[in-house]
Amino acid sequence: MAAPEVTHLPNLPNDVEGLRQSIRDAVVRVVGEDPRQATERDWMEALAFAIRERMVERRLLTRRQFADEDVKRVYYLSMEYLIGRMLEANLRNMGILEPARQAMADLGVNLDTILDLEDDAALGNGGLGRLAACILESLATQGYPGYGYGIRYEFGMFRQEFEPYHQVEHPDNWLRYGNPWEFPRSDRKYPIHFYGHVVEHHHPRGETRYTWENGEEVLAMAYDYPTAGYGRRNVNNLRLWAAKATRDFDLRYFNEGDYIRAVADKAESETISMVLYPNDATAIGKELRLKQEYFFVSASLQDILDRHLALGYNLDALPDKVAIQLNDTHPAIAVAELMRLLVDCHELSWDRAWDLARRTFAYTNHTLMPEALETWPVELMERVLPRHMGIIYQINHDFLEQVRHRYPGDNDRLARLSIIDEQNGRRVRMAHLAVVGSHRVNGVAALHTQLLQETLFEDFYNLWPERFVNVTNGVTPRLWMIQANPALTELLGQRIGNDWQYDLDRLRALEPYAHDADLQKAFLDVKRANKVRLANLVRERTGVELNPDVMFDVQIKRIHEYKRQLLKLLHVVDLYRRIRAGEDVAPRVVLFGGKAAPGYARAKGIIQVINEVADIVNHDPAVGDRLKCVFFPNYEVSSASIIIPAADVSEQISTAGFEASGTGNMKLALNGALTIGTLDGANIEIRDAVGEESIFIFGMTADEVVEHRRNGPNPEAILAQQPNLAAAVEMIESGFFTCDDPGTHGDLGRYLRHEDPFFVIADYAAYTEACERADTLYADRTAWAEAAILNVARMGYFSIDRTVRDYANQIWDIIPEPVAPSRTNGAA
Ligand code: GPW
């Protein structure tokens, strides 16, 4: 037992006076500046340091308690965490936002100015990465022992600029001022092996053993980000890995005197964690990507096993003490890596290891789209990860034996189920590896899980129906309501108290007041104030002036053909043409936001044409306030939290069957926007929750889309029957909006007339009809307010806290462990 002096934790004060002292000291001791000369950025850094020392203290208390209580832990493995800014979130979740505001004011600094200086931590592309960030926040808030593992990319999601219409990508150098939130752990390093070859060692009695020899090694070094729960003392940890060269590199060429080559090689080996691939829902297929995946998976599993053993458990207890969630197939190589660690390094028998691995892993699927499904050429896998290729063959062999036994003679089924795709030049199907190696597989919305069972994983579902479960996505109300929408938060507090902050279902208490005229007025006032706030930001970023009394119609998400930004754009062009023709149309502001993957030409073309249309529409004096179109540049988490509370209408118009869930749909509806949407992803569950009166559903269902495709779609025939739509398409292809590059819009016309792979043309009439229903309701302010209030009141189900409880109960088998107000420390 260590002396009390050694086990003591500092227990820093959280009142205004205590904070002020910490901040003032940090300017000198950490930033190294004279408080008399400190800049705003110096104060920001000092404040961050004052918070982080309080966070780490609670982190240690949390860890002590988890160790004392022998808890089961969950580890979330994700290539992406789309966190956004951390300062305000950490202040709020630590419960010191208001004292810190006061302390800063005492020091002569305005907190809001400081908050705006911070760069987003954008270590993700979109929905998948943001979901991971929400899940970590909820794990901490609910007191679950849950940890994130990922990559500390030096460069996150690129910064988007328009020059002037097309997207240009700039590197996101988010670490250029250093990062006060991270704790570099140079004592936590693991070797990661690539290339080389495998040597077999035959034993007369017992199993053949394998060693992986030669090749290259790089080190994975841990950087820890404490993650605070809201309204609790629990602080969990997100551990991100950075690549560091081994000492090997120092020795390799220095002896031969090739100093420059040695340093260059060293730098090259550290590129593994340099940059996030900016592709959303598309497999990348590059060797460096495979190395990134293996790099962070191997480091995380080595760390997990080290902790497990250090806590005194034996390996047979692994599934009882550890759950590992694979966020899509990006970390699916973990199945083979855990087998390697257990069999080759810890010398377990194959069968014992397999039983442990399968009971430990679970896999979340986030898409059905074939281009997003990762498969690696066998030849590449063999070269980069030779031992893993051997392990995958063994897993596949055992698995197919089982299938043969169950379905004798069914060779087609064997080929369909095999982890190796023999059709397309031999590739490893990572989704199959993940399903075979997990005890649970989940989709992220009811429709998505159903389609997984009926299509992509049909054969697996027939084999193991009990393995498949649904866990519908959710969003954290701390960021997406309390932080993003303080005005509505305040109003809710006045009307129904603050319990909803911990239990979002309690928003239902608002229902009885939906037709209360005072509440309706207050609700509309809040929305208008949020629209003014957004209009100010839009003016600053784009120069476009928006009228806050007009409907704000918002489509914010990655640019993808299946998400159908073109459907919204056709509507804009249609309205514009009709306004010019003297027709009276309901006024609206249409706001787009989102990035295109740099190599996705069609998506970049969509951005360009939207910008070109916007430029013409916004400068046409015949239009005035009746139509404005804005492409908000560099849409990211921090701008989302200004845009979402200001939306009247939420566009969720993907072709049915393609959006696994969506989570923007949830954030917007929670903030009182009414959804115009297809019966896709979680839109269906949102409709079931909010009721038909608070949502505008339109278009083909997933079944009808399949049927429509089978019948051979004919967009030209539809255009011939719809003069408004035809006129809009003609206006675009005629070059009316062409500003930059003549001819590009002709190509877009051909695309819509002859390809239209996501049925924009076929759904257009139904879509505009839904928009008109929204216009009619919007014109009746009382009816709109009532529908919007009911919408908010009924969104409780879409809290990430419910999502996380579903994972905890159905998949992880873990329970909350709230940290008791100071035990070990004797603090208040
Ligand atoms: F393709 N999603 C995403 F499934 O944001 F891997 N990026 C991705 O690479 C993939 C999925 C992947 C999204 C889904 O498109 C969206 O529908 C879902 O709400 C979100 O993941 C979170 O589940």
Automatic annotation (TrEMBL):
<keyword id="KW-0808">Transferase</keyword>
<comment type="similarity">
    <text>Belongs to the glycogen phosphorylase family.</text>
</comment>
<dbReference type="GO" id="GO:0005980">
    <property type="term" value="P:glycogen catabolic process"/>
</dbReference>
<comment type="function">
    <text>Phosphorylase is an important allosteric enzyme in carbohydrate metabolism. Enzymes from different sources differ in their regulatory mechanisms and in their natural substrates. However, all known phosphorylases share catalytic and structural properties.</text>
</comment>
<comment type="function">
    <text>Allosteric enzyme that catalyzes the rate-limiting step in glycogen catabolism, the phosphorolytic cleavage of glycogen to produce glucose-1-phosphate, and plays a central role in maintaining cellular and organismal glucose homeostasis.</text>
</comment>
<keyword id="KW-0119">Carbohydrate metabolism</keyword>
<dbReference type="GO" id="GO:0030170">
    <property type="term" value="F:pyridoxal phosphate binding"/>
</dbReference>
<dbReference type="InterPro" id="IPR011833">
    <property type="entry name" value="Glycg_phsphrylas"/>
</dbReference>
<dbReference type="GO" id="GO:0008184">
    <property type="term" value="F:glycogen phosphorylase activity"/>
</dbReference>
<dbReference type="InterPro" id="IPR000811">
    <property type="entry name" value="Glyco_trans_35"/>
</dbReference>
<protein>
    <recommendedName>
        <fullName>Alpha-1,4 glucan phosphorylase</fullName>
        <ecNumber>2.4.1.1</ecNumber>
    </recommendedName>
</protein>
<keyword id="KW-0663">Pyridoxal phosphate</keyword>
<dbReference type="GO" id="GO:0005737">
    <property type="term" value="C:cytoplasm"/>
</dbReference>
<keyword id="KW-0328">Glycosyltransferase</keyword>
<feature type="modified residue" description="N6-(pyridoxal phosphate)lysine">
    <location>
        <position position="667"/>
    </location>
</feature>
<dbReference type="InterPro" id="IPR035090">
    <property type="entry name" value="Pyridoxal_P_attach_site"/>
</dbReference>
<dbReference type="Pfam" id="PF00343">
    <property type="entry name" value="Phosphorylase"/>
</dbReference>
<keyword id="KW-0021">Allosteric enzyme</keyword>
